[in-house]
């Protein structure tokens, strides 16, 4: 992981929700590409484990406990990363949470938690980090993980899909506002992806997972590594002239025009 010629050599990245699942895969991939990675997650022990894995492979990583729903936490995390690793070049908003249920059965308490993590979280991290990128004048990359649920809806995920759609609108606007500062803002939309979170949400309904896979043209669920490659592209110099874009990584399940 110490390849000086890697695409992201010398860059500092912070990935939220990076202790496991898609976030962990993204953090590992960015480290392989040469970045120094902050593993930001509320699950601090698991974050430490992921950071140790990167360090053991020759990379640089720092575990940071972070509740994305709190702006003060986001600012404190950014301060710590800058102090201990360096100025942040890449922000990946990945942390997410959902409770699958029909909207008519949901409660305002659930709405509040879904909104706080899935939408306010990216707002908080962008508020904490984008001004620092702008002040440095060296450009930057902001990549947020949305969902194909934002584009086509998803039964049992009404508020979640709304938050993920909000991320797309917010990111496109932020991309316009920050373009002159060479800060690129893009979005990756996973389709159904085989993670512990998905399997937990579908506990007792494994047949639904099989049906999901059959409906995907490539006939399988996504894997976390599938998303990591897309994020690594947006984070790299290969995407220096790409901003305000939304990329679905869904095996062809959705094909936006």
Short characterization:
The chain is α/β, with parallel strands linked by helices.
How are the elements arranged and paired?
Layout: E1 12-16, H1 21-32, E2 36-41, H2 44-56, E3 61-65, H3 71-84, E4 90-93, H4 108-136, E5 140-145, H5 149-152, H6 158-178, E6 183-190, H7 196-201, H8 206-215, H9 224-235, E7 246-249
Parallel strand pairs: 1-2, 1-4, 2-3, 4-5, 5-6, 6-7
Helix pairs in contact: 1-9, 3-4, 4-6
Q: Could you explain how this protein is built, in words?
A:
With 257 residues, the chain is of the alpha/beta class. 47% of the residues lie in helices and 15% in strands. The protein is built from nine helices and seven strands, in the order E-H-E-H-E-H-E-H-E-H-H-E-H-H-H-E. It has helices spanning 21-32, 44-56, 71-84, 108-136, 149-152, 158-178, 196-201, 206-215, 224-235; strands at residues 12-16, 36-41, 61-65, 90-93, 140-145, 183-190, 246-249. Strands 3-2-1-4-5-6-7 form a seven-stranded parallel beta sheet, with helices on both faces. Helix 1 crosses helix 9, helix 3 (71-84) runs parallel beside helix 4 and helix 4 (108-136) packs parallel to helix 6. The longest helix has 29 residues, at 108-136. It starts with 11 loop residues before the first strand and ends in an 8-residue tail after the last strand.
Residue ranges: pLDDT <50 for 5 or more in a row?
Answer: none
Outline: globular
Proportion of helical residues: 40-55%
What is the overall number of helices?
A: 9
Q: Numbering strands along the chain, what is their spatial order in the largest sheet? A: 3-2-1-4-5-6-7
Q: Descriptors for this entry?
A:
257 residues, alpha/beta
């Amino acid at each position: 992981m110490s390849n000086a010629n890697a695409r992201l050599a010398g860059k500092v990245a912070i990935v939220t929700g990076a202790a496991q699942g898609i976030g962990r895969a993204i953090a590992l991939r960015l480290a392989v590409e040469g970045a120094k990675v902050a593993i930001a997650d509320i699950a601090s022990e698991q974050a430490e484990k992921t950071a140790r894995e990167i360090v053991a492979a020759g990379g640089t990583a720092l575990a940071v406990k972070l509740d994305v729903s709190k702006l003060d936490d986001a600012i404190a995390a950014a301060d710590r990363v800058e102090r201990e690793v360096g100025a942040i070049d890449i922000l990946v908003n990945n942390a997410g949470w959902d409770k699958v249920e029909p909207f008519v059965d949901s409660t305002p308490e659930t709405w509040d938690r879904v909104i706080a993590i899935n939408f306010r979280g990216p707002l908080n991290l962008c508020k904490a980090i984008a001004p620092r990128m702008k002040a440095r004048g060296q450009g930057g990359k902001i990549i947020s993980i949305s969902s194909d649920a934002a584009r086509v809806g998803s039964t049992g995920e009404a508020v979640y899909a709304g938050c993920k759609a909000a991320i797309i609108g917010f990111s496109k606007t932020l991309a316009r506002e920050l373009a002159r500062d060479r800060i690129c803002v893009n979005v990756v939309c996973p389709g159904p992806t085989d993670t512990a979170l998905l399997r937990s949400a579908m506990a007792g309904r494994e047949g639904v997972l099989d049906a999901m896979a059959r409906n995907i043209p490539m006939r399988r669920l996504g894997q976390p590594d599938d998303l990591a490659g897309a994020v690594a592209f947006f984070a790299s110099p290969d995407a220096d002239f790409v901003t305000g874009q939304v990329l679905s990584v869904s095996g062809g399940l959705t094909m936006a025009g």
